[in-house]
Design a protein that fits this description.
The chain folds into 2 domains: about 40 residues; about 150 residues, Immunoglobulin-like (Sandwich). Helix content is about 25%, strand content about 40%. The chain contains 3 helices and 12 strands. The strands form 2 sheets. Strands 3, 4, 5, 6, 8, 9 and 10 form a 7-stranded antiparallel beta sheet that branches. Strands 1, 2, 7, 11 and 12 form a 5-stranded antiparallel beta sheet that branches. Helix 1 packs antiparallel against helix 3. The longest helix has about 30 residues. About 5% of the residues have low confidence.
Length: about 210
């Protein structure tokens, strides 16, 4: 009788140990596979025609400095071609300029900058300056990314982010630390949900066994 009871206890301990090991393994996999999308921001945006001190509405160029930050500690990022589109507000359909950056690879914990000067068309520069309107632009970024995890890469994931750029009387953006491009999509890593669910189930089984 006592031998049987002892054998049952050993079996339960073995099962609990297996469940705990499975849970820890699942947690490790979740931490290893969890990815964070790159942080995209416009660090500098300058519109010479809206610089009231320069008073030169014949200069129809716009200058931008795009910064891409890979905050993943051990995962690189492959970018497809990156497309930037600029719209003049309040008319959201008035696209005044666009830019394409060629595909590239970015190492983990690395930052990349893309700077360019573009010719903007369709902006009522004289009317904007005469009305004392500083200027508001909408910038949208679109690309697809793959994450390099150890020796393999994930499938492509769509990345679409954007922000509104407010230009002051000097022709520059108001925010000194840059404008972050954001998306309305959830921020959880692409591989986070399924493995996190496995972790929760493992812990629940461990508690109630």
């Amino acid at each position: 009788m006592s031998d049987y009871s002892g054998g049952g206890g050993g079996c339960r301990r073995c099962c609990c140990s297996f469940i705990l090991t499975s849970g820890l393994t699942a947690l490790f996999m979740w931490l290893s596979l969890r990815t964070s999308p790159p942080v995209c921001s416009i660090q500098n945006f300058y519109v010479p025609a809206l610089n009231k001190t320069a008073n030169d509405t014949t200069n129809h160029t716009i200058y931008f400095d795009l910064k891409l930050d890979n905050e993943n500690k051990d995962k690189g990022i492959y970018y497809d071609n990156i497309t930037l589109t600029f719209n003049y507000l309040p008319n959201t359909t008035l696209q005044v300029a666009n830019y394409t950056a060629r595909a590239f690879y970015q190492g983990h914990k690395k930052s990349t900058r893309r700077k360019a000067r573009l010719e903007a068309v369709g902006v009522p520069w004289e009317a904007a300056v005469a009305a004392g309107y500083n200027g508001t632009f909408r910038v949208d970024l679109a690309t697809k990314v793959r994450y390099k995890i150890v020796f393999w890469s994930t499938k492509r994931h769509k990345l679409e982010v954007g922000t509104t750029l407010v230009v002051n009387e000097t022709g520059k953006t108001v925010k000194k630390k840059g404008d972050r491009l954001k998306s309305g999509a959830p921020g959880l890593g692409f591989y986070g949900a399924p493995v996190a669910l496995l972790v929760v189930l493992s812990v629940m089984v461990l508690v109630f066994v």
